[in-house]
């Protein structure tokens, strides 16, 4: 009987209270993060936790959804267009270490990352410095993007990079717009 009372106390009082405190803290973190951005459009949804380093060099357009556990390194500049969806655990780096130096420690290079309008970056992707992802492109889950992605294409990396044009509504294609096998 005593164990039941303890369970009820935690279930009905402590857990809801702790959850409310967490929500309040995350709302504060979200507001602080958005206030530090270079520019931020309307209807931007950050699911916390998210990290943006050098946020003063990051620009975000309208109607953008950023899932939890997204990390951005904005030292080289990051531009995110409108109607962009970024999945959880995505890393976007506009800065890195110079692999051509004898000692990479302490070296730093910066290249802007541009994500154009209508892009979907699936979860667990890594976007490296200097990459432009074209309008309407889809980046498959777990991809490491090292080079530019053409507009309205689907890119999936793994052993080999595969890229094909994304069929749009109303388009008729001989191969049905399906990925290569």
Number of helices: 1
Alpha carbon gyration radius: 20 Å
In CATH, the homologous superfamily goes by the name Hexapeptide repeat proteins
Highest-level CATH class:
Mainly Beta
Secondary-structure content class:
alpha/beta
The residue ranges in which pLDDT falls below 50 over 5 or more consecutive positions are none
The major sheet is characterized as:
7 strands, mixed
For the secondary structure, the number of strands is 19
Description:
The protein is α/β, with parallel strands linked by helices and 181 residues long. It has a single domain, classed as 3 Solenoid (UDP N-Acetylglucosamine Acyltransferase, domain 1), CATH 2.160.10. It is 19% helix and 27% strand. The strands form 4 sheets. It has a 7-stranded mixed sheet, with no helix packed on it. Strands 1-4-7-12-15 form a 5-stranded parallel sheet, with no helix packed on it. It is globular and about 60 Å long. The mean pLDDT is 87.
